[in-house]
């Protein structure tokens, strides 16, 4: 990168931002003070999730719970239902816990400083910096995936991620525009999202092109990444039991762990090393009703962050007089659309319902 002062970089970036800033539901108009609740809510939702995916959920949450006090008073089950389909469900539990803590300990007022924000459930270093900078104009470095990409290209960093993150964080701290830290943070994010894109950066119109060391190289080769590890593959089985009135048998997952607190169908554990014929041989070991006439109707695939999953789907009609096993409950047909099913269970539901030819697949709420 050509030697330039941070004032030159910041000035070029903010001049571009003032002309080209994105309009987002949670972003305050120019000159208006951002709402800390809106900033916090959006930042939690945006963790490892795209803006396009978040917009509808964000607007729905604000309709349901316009203030942090409203969210804190809501049942966790309702929060999980509203979150269903967005993924990374620990965020929803932390969101609810954080709202309750802010209301109980601070009367509904979010703290302004990073150190205090980081004491809140679900608020890590990045989220604390983003809230401090955007909502309270604190001079906090904010580094998300977009900012990592911009800075890795500005510096032409040969160190791959995640090892390069500390160097990038220090660099952002050096060039941070302290008079407008919130706008600076959002400008860096917007630049990475709209111009300094992963595969097709538009260097011709980039306001930071004069300072970019990667511009004359191959910008799309930055940031460097270590070789990808093979994603583990697991298999399991899901059992969808139907009552005569169309209700389906479900249960709630444990609060802690993957998909914690969400609703699911009964099924086996999910393990590596199972062969293609596993379902036919041993997949029925964890059926919720041994007397039912189970039949396999298909398979569904789902990819989690750390592993890929294939579930064999079995369906059956409940025999007369059947009572749900411990932890089980019936979901009426008109309740299914609002149930707190994660995406993988929506796929199971769709597969089962197609087999029964009951109705079109229900999309996540």
Relative helix content? 25-40%
The CATH architecture of the largest domain can be named as Orthogonal Bundle
**What is the H/E order?**
HHHHHHHHHHHEEEEEHEEEH
Number of domains in the coordinates? 2
CATH topology of the largest domain: Endonuclease III, domain 1
Spatial gap, N to C terminus:
47 Å
Number of E-type strands: 8
CATH superfamily of the largest domain: Hypothetical protein, domain 2
Which runs of at least 5 residues are low in confidence (pLDDT < 50)?
359-365
Number of helices, counting only DSSP H or I runs of 4 residues or more = 13
Class inferred from helices and paired strands: alpha+beta
How is the biggest beta sheet arranged?
Answer: 5 strands, mixed
Radius of gyration: 24 Å
Dominant shape: globular
Mean pLDDT: 90
Percent range for β-strand residues: 5-15%
Question: What is the level 1 CATH name of the largest domain?
Answer: Mainly Alpha
How does this model look, in words?
It is a single chain. Strands 1, 4, 5, 6 and 7 form a five-stranded mixed sheet that branches. Strands 3-2-8 form a three-stranded antiparallel sheet, with no helix packed on it. It contains 13 helices and eight strands. Strand 6 and strand 7 form a beta hairpin. The C terminus is likely disordered. The chain is globular. By secondary structure, it is of the alpha+beta class. It folds into two domains: 216 residues, Endonuclease III, domain 1; 124 residues, Nucleoside Triphosphate Pyrophosphohydrolase. The two termini are 47 Å apart.
């Amino acid at each position: 990168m050509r030697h330039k002062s941070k004032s030159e970089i910041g000035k070029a970036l903010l001049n571009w931002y003032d002309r080209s800033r994105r309009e987002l539901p949670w972003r305050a108009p120019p000159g208006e003070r951002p709402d800390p609740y809106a900033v916090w809510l959006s930042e939690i939702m945006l963790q490892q999730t795209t803006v396009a995916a978040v917009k509808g959920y964000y607007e729905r949450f604000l309709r349901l719970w316009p203030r942090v006090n409203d969210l804190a008073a809501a049942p966790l089950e309702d929060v999980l239902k509203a979150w269903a389909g967005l993924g990374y469900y620990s965020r929803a539990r932390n969101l609810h816990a954080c709202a309750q803590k802010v209301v109980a300990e601070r009367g509904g007022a979010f703290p302004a400083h990073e150190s205090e924000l980081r004491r809140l459930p679900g608020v890590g270093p990045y989220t604390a910096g983003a809230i401090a900078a955007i909502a309270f104009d604190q001079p906090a470095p904010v580094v998300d995936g977009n900012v990592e990409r911009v800075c890795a290209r500005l510096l032409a960093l040969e160190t791959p991620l995640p090892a390069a993150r500390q160097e990038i964080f220090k660099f952002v701290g050096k060039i941070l525009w302290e008079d407008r830290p919130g706008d600076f943070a959002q400008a860096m994010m917007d630049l990475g999202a709209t111009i300094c894109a992963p595969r097709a950066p538009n260097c011709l119109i980039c306001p930071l092109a004069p300072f970019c060391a990667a511009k004359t190289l191959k910008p799309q080769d930055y940031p460097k990444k270590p070789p990808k590890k093979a994603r583990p593959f697991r298999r399991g089985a899901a059992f969808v039991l139907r009552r005569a009135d169309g209700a389906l048998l479900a249960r709630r997952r444990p609060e802690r762990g993957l998909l914690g607190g969400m609703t699911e169908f009964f099924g086996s554990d999910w393990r590596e090393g199972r062969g293609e014929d596993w379902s036919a041989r041993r997949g029925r070991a964890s059926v919720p009703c041994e007397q039912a006439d189970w039949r396999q109707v298909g398979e569904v695939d789902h990819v989690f962050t750390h592993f890929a999953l294939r579930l064999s789907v079995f369906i059956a009609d409940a025999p007369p007089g059947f009572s749900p096993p411990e932890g089980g409950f019936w979901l009426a047909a008109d309740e299914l659309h609002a149930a707190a099913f994660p995406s993988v269970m929506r796929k199971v539901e769709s597969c089962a319902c197609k087999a029964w030819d009951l109705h079109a697949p229900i999309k996540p709420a």
